[in-house]
Amino acid sequence: MPHWRSGQMLRWILLPVLIPVRLLVYIWFKLTLSFLRGNVLFHSVPDRFTSTVQSGLLYRIINKQEMLWFHYLGFLSRMSRDSSIRWVVLSIPDLEDLEWSQIEEIRIRLNELVKSGKRLVGHAEKGGLKTLCLLSACERRFLAPGASFFTALPHSESFFFGSALKKLGIRVEVHTAGEFKSAGESVSRDSMTPSAKKNLEELLDARTQAILSGLTVLHSSDPNPDEKLHTKIRQNAFLEAEELYALKFCQGLVARANFKDLCEDLLPYWHAGEPLPSDSSINESDRLPILSLDDGIEVTDAPVSHSFPGVAERTMDEVIKEQLEQDESASNAAMQKSVPIESEASSASRSSGSIPGQRTGNKKTKERKKNKENTRTSEAKLPVFRFLEMDQAEKRYQRKRFQPFRIRRYPSVALVSCEGMIVWGDEQPDSGRIGALSMRKIFRDLEDSKNEAIFLYINSPGGLSDASEALYQDIYRLSRSRPVFAIIGPVAASGGYYMACAANRIYSPDLSLTGSVGVLRMRPELSGLYRKLGIHKQRVRFGPTTDLLSEAGNLSKKSQALLDESMDRAYNLFLDRVGRSRGLNRKETDLRGRGKVYTGSQFRSEGMVDRKGGFIEAFRDFRKEAGFGEQMFDIQIFPVLRPGAADLIRQGPFSAMRPLEKSELFQSKNLYMVHPDICFQHTGFQTELRRAGGSLIGSAILRL
Questions:
Q1: I need a surface site. Which of 59, 225, 403, 416 has the fewest CB within 10 A?
Q2: DSSP per-residue string spanning 605-657
Q3: Is the domain 403-535+551-648+662-703 a CATH 3.90.226.10 member?
Q4: Could you give the 3-state DSSP secondary structure of residue 148?
C-alpha cells in the first residue's frame, strides 16, 4: 500500500480525537490573534539563504536553520496580498554574498508590494550595488551617515597558470567542442582566447546595463534624472553616503540604531502627507540624534537627556532654557518695533498705566499656544501604526488560514533543489554536489507520489557528461506523467542546462548565467615533471588506446581519434537533447551552443528559455493554467538533510569555534577564474571548483 494512502487511513481513524483538539487550537488562535495586530511590517532582509531543508527534532533543538530561499520568496508574495499591511519598513544589510539573480527575484517581490498599494521605506548602512539596488525599490530611502558603498560594476580579473605549470614540467591538454568553451584556459594558456574574451565582455556589458537600470534617484525635474548617478557609479569604485545623498539617491542620513524610532515617529506624517514637526528632535532627542532629512529636519549636535554631558555637549534642560530665552528675546524685539513715536495714542497708553507692546507680546504668546494646540489636534487625527516583525506576520498568516474541520490535505507540489557540480554517486544534500544516484532515488519516489507538479531549482555549473545524461533521462521520464518546471538559479550552465532541457518548461531570471552548450575534456601530461624528479614509469599490457588513461606521454593517433570521436558523440547528443526541448534541429542548436555563456535575458531572446522569473512565477503559472485558481498548496521540498548527533556536534553550535581553513582565505577570489560557464563572480562554487581542479590533475574525464 502506498505511504500516502496509509497516512490517509490513519487520519480518518484518529478523526474523533483530532476534531476536539483542532477546535481547541482554533479557539486559541482566535484569542491570540488580537496580540498580533499590526499594519507596518518591520523587516531585515536576510544576507544569506539555504535551499536545503534540515529536518529532525535534535537539529531544531541544537542548531538554527538559515532562511530557506523559497520560503522567503513566498513570504514576500503573501505580504503583497495582506490587506492589513500598509507600510513595509526594510533594513537592508550588506548583500554581497547573494547572487545577482537572487537580488533580481527579491526586487521583483518588492515591486509587487508597491503595486499592491504597500509603501516601502528602506535603510542601508553598508554594502554595495546589490544593497543599493534593493533600496531603489523603496519610496523613502535612508543611508547611515559616514557609510561607504562599493559601486564597482561587474568586472573580471583572471588567473592563468599555463607558464607556471610548464616550469614545473606539467602540461594540461584541453580538448573542447565549441570555441567558447573556455574553462580549461586558466591551466593551459597565459591569456584568454579572443572568442572567450568577447563572450566575457558581452556578459559583463549585459549585466552592467541591467544593474544600472535598477538604480534610480528620487523624483527629479531633470530630463535624465539617473544619468548623474550612473556616471558617478561608472567612475568610482565606491561612494560615500553623503555623495549619494547629494545625488538625490536617498532622502536622508540616519544611523541604523535610530531608523526604527524615526519611522515610528514620522510614519503618521508621511502617510497623511502632513508637514513634519520641526521640534520632534528637540522633544525626544535621544530617539533622533544626528540626522539629515530632505523634509527639513537636521540635527548635528543632539543634546543628552541625562545629567552627565561631555565637555562639548549640552543637556536637554539647557537646550530648552536656551530656546525659551530665544523666544523671549524675539518677543521683546517685536515689542520694541511696535513702540510708536510720541503720539496721542502713546500718551493715552501711558496715562492708563499700560506698558507699550504688552498686547503684542501677549498676542505672540497666544499664537504660540494656539499653534501647539493645533499641532496636538493634527497629531490626534494622524493614523496609528503598529509594527510587526517577520515571525509575527508569519504566525498571524498561519493562524488566520487554520481550518479546524479540514482533515483532508491540500494538494501538493514537489520542489527539488539541484545545487553543485554534477557527479555520479550517492551524495549528501549538503555536499555541494548533485549525485546522479541520490537524485534518482528522489525522482523514483516522486513518480509514486500524489504531487500535482514538480519544480526543479537548478543551480549548477555542470559536471560529468554521463551523469548529466542519466539525470536527463530520469527527469524526462518524470515529465511524461506530470508537469515538470525547471527554474534556473544563479547558474545553470552546461550540464545544469542539460538537466533543464528534460523539463516541460524552463524559467530564468534575467541576471542568471546559463547556456554553455558544449563539451570539455582535460588531460594532464606530467612526463616533464617526472623527468625533473627522476621518476620513471614502465607500461605493461597497454592496448592501442590505453594511453588515454595515463598522465605521462603524448597520445597516439588512435587514441586521439577515439577521443575526438567521443567528444563529437557527446556534443551531438547534447545538441539533440537541447534541440528536442526547444524544437530546433542540430544546426540551429549549434549556432546557440559552442560553449557560449548567456544571461537569462539573452538566452530567452534566443528562444532557449520559455519565461522570465523564478519559482513564484512558475508556481503561479501552473496554478492558473491547471485551473486551481487561488487554491492553497502544500510544498514538499527535496532533498531533506537529516543530520545525526555526531554531525550536529561537529558542525552545529561549535562550528563557529573551528579553525579557519586555508582554502577559506581565498573565498572572495577565484584562483582559477575558469570563465563564467563554470563560475562568474560566484563565491558559492569556489571550494568546489578547487576540488574539481584537483581531480582533473589525477584523471582524464569528460565534462559538460
A1: 403
A2: HTTSS-EE--HHHHHHHHHHHTT-TT---EEEEESEE---HHHHHHHSTTGGG
A3: yes
A4: strand
Q: Any long-range contacts for 654-661 (C-beta under 8 Å, 24+ apart)?
A: none
Residue 204 φ/ψ, nearest 5 degrees: -65, -40
Distances (CA, A) of 236 to 145, 198, 233, 595: 19, 24, 5, 33
CA-nearest of 143, 146, 149 to 96 is: 149
Q: What is the DSSP string of 501-541?
A: TTSSEEEE-TT-EEE---EEEEEEE-HHHHHHHT------S
Q: What secondary structure letter does DSSP report for 182?
A: -
Which residues are bridge partners to 122 per DSSP?
A: 90, 141
What is the C-alpha separation between 430 and 49, in angstroms, rounded?
13
CA distance 483 to 446: 12
pTM, full prediction: 0.83
| C-alpha cell of residue 445 | 519516489
Strands, E, within 201-248: which ranges?
Answer: 238-240
Q: Please give the grid coordinates belonging to residue 74.
A: 513566498
Taking only the tens place, the pLDDT of each residue in 307-349 is 787 877 777 777 777 777 777 787 777 777 665 544 444 444 4
SS3 98: coil
How is 448-505 classified by DSSP, letter by letter?
TS--S-EEEEEEE--BBHHHHHHHHHHHHHHHHHS-EEEEEEEEEETHHHHHHTTSSE
pLDDT < 70 regions, the chain: 1-16, 55-65, 277-302, 337-381, 642-704
